[in-house]
């Protein structure tokens, strides 16, 4: 008997793994995924459910592989296009999801009038979005919400994250190869596709601050949405945080990581540093019980570190936003503040070894790396990249350990300052 073909193998694996995931939903009274307006906004399997989480990832990878195999190489290549981004951009830019309330219906003509767009363009943008399950057309010419369009209408942070994708990343990606050709391996955040797309020699953060404050605020909101989806449980379990006295949380925003550590561990005190606009109302968000342990300080980590002789200098998702030359600058900016034995704890997105992860996870992590190139001329780094960068910054930076979470795509680096 002939062995099953790859497409049959994939179909069988998809069926088996989907049944496993569905059984988990049923057993735990979790709503099944649905495009309906009341469908769950997010499908997430807790990391401790290892078998179910692995099956979930396998389904995502196998469905993509099966889709591409059934298309064939020619149709796969010719079918890669930007129209998904284009229709989503139209929906976002003209605020179409807010033109009628979730649970109600509207005609294309009604939506066009409210959004000040021609009915022809409204119809074609929305009908293309419907092929991605954003809106639906229950009867000819009448539009209703789906779970995805409802999110755009009701969740400001998700809406701003979509805005970031279509109005920052989309045009920047179109200029990224121009930047690579013009600048080579970037040494400055202004040598990026984003900077070329915005006709500036400044990097994204500098240009937001100097010229585009509204877009900067959108960026901050979008990053808040992204940060809210990242678990820090592994980080909390990776160190005896009570063994540290003072922790400097560099670029820490309103302090979500410091707050989480302080809620779990009673001894350390925290100084959260960031640019003035990022910490503007941070203290008012703090629980009264934490105000004596968490302080905020306006500080730019591109300048010399202002807090001397802390026990830990903590950097979460900072370095992957900067080209190598600027990462070296950030590291060296800490040196004059460090006491012997001081630690730098760095949590930063990383890259997997090729072929070592399920295809879905590898694609996601490599996509994030390309986003860093697009926005900042930057990159995500492996543990080996970090060893090399630490040696170049100063040989007294010594890597104690590098913990890699391959599923979440992060490195947790424990670096000690071992100068005499």
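Sequence proposed for the structure above (420 residues):
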């Amino acid at each position: 008997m002939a062995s099953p073909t790859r497409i049959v193998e994939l179909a069988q694996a998809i069926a088996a793994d989907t049944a496993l995931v569905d059984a988990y939903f049923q057993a735990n009274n979790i709503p099944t995924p649905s495009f309906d307006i009341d469908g769950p906004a997010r499908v997430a399997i807790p990391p401790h459910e290892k078998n179910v989480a692995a099956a979930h990832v396998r389904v995502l990878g196998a469905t993509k592989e099966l889709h591409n195999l059934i298309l064939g190489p020619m149709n796969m290549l010719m079918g890669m296009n930007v129209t998904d981004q284009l229709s989503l951009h139209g929906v976002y830019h003209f605020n179409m999801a807010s033109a009628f309330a979730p649970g109600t219906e509207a005609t294309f003509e009604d939506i066009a009038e409210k959004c000040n767009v021609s009915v022809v363009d409204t119809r074609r943008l929305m009908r293309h979005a419907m092929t991605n399950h954003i809106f639906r057309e229950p009867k000819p010419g009448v539009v209703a919400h789906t779970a995805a369009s409802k999110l755009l209408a009701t969740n400001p942070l998700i809406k701003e994250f979509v805005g970031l994708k279509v109005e920052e990343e989309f045009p920047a990606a179109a200029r990224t190869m121009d930047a690579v050709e013009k600048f080579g391996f970037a040494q400055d955040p202004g040598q990026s596709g984003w900077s070329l797309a915005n006709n500036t020699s400044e990097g994204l953060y500098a240009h937001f601050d100097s010229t585009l404050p509204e877009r900067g605020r959108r960026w901050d909101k979008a990053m808040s949405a992204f940060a809210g989806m990242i678990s820090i449980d592994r980080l909390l379990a990776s160190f005896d945080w009570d063994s540290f006295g003072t922790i400097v949380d560099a670029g820490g925003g309103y302090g979500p990581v410091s707050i989480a550590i302080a809620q779990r561990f009673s001894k350390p005190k925290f100084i959260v540093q960031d640019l003035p606009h990022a910490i503007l109302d941070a203290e008012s968000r703090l629980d009264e019980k934490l105000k004596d342990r968490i302080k905020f300080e306006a500080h730019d980590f591109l300048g010399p570190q202002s807090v001397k002789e802390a026990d830990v200098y903590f950097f979460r998702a900072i370095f992957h936003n900067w080209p190598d030359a600027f990462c070296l600058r950030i590291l060296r900016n800490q040196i004059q503040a460090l006491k012997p034995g001081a630690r730098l704890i760095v949590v930063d997105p990383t890259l997997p070894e090729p072929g070592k992860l399920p295809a879905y996870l590898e694609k996601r992590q490599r996509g994030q790396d390309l986003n860093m190139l697009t926005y900042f001329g930057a990159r995500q780094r492996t543990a080996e990249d970090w060893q090399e960068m630490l040696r170049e910054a100063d040989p007294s930076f010594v890597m104690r350990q590098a913990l890699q979470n391959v599923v979440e795509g992060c490195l947790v680096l424990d670096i000690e300052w071992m100068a005499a």
